[in-house]
Amino acid sequence: MECCSEENSCKTNAEKIVCITCGAQAQKVNYKTVLMMLKFEQVKTAEESDYFLCTNQGCDTVYFSNKLNLIYNKNDIRIKIGFKEKAEPKLVCYCFDITEKQITDEVKQKGQSLIVEFITEKTRNKLCACSIKNPTGKCCLKNVNKIISNVK
What is the CATH number of domain 11-76? Predict the structure, then answer.
C-alpha cells in the first residue's frame, strides 16, 4: 500500500476532537509520527497512546494526548511545521522539501504546476515517507492541490 494512495490521503475523523489549548479542531496522528517529530528530550517522555495534531496556525500546541495529559508545543518539535508558520519557507511536502512558495511561484510563472506529477511519480516508486516525515502522518498531495487551486 502506498502512503499517498486514496485510502491513506483522504481519511476523515468521524469523532470530533478539539485542541486542549485553543479549542480548534484537531486530527488524529499515529504515535510513530509523533515520535519522529519530537526532539530527543521529548521522545523520552512520550508513551504509546492516542495523539492528536492541532492545525491552528496561531496555536503553539502541535501534538497532544488527552489520555496522558501531554502537550507538545512547537519548540518540542525538531522541524518547522509549514502550516504552523507565518513566514516562508512553509514546507508542504516533507518528503521532497517542497515549499508553498515553490508551488505558488511555479503556477504564477507557468500557469500550472508539475509538482503533483513529481510527487505522484515518486510515490508510485515507493520513495515517499509521509507517515514519518509529514507532521500529519498523511500524504501532502491534498494540500498541494489546494494551494494550486487557490493560486489559479
Answer: 2.20.25.270
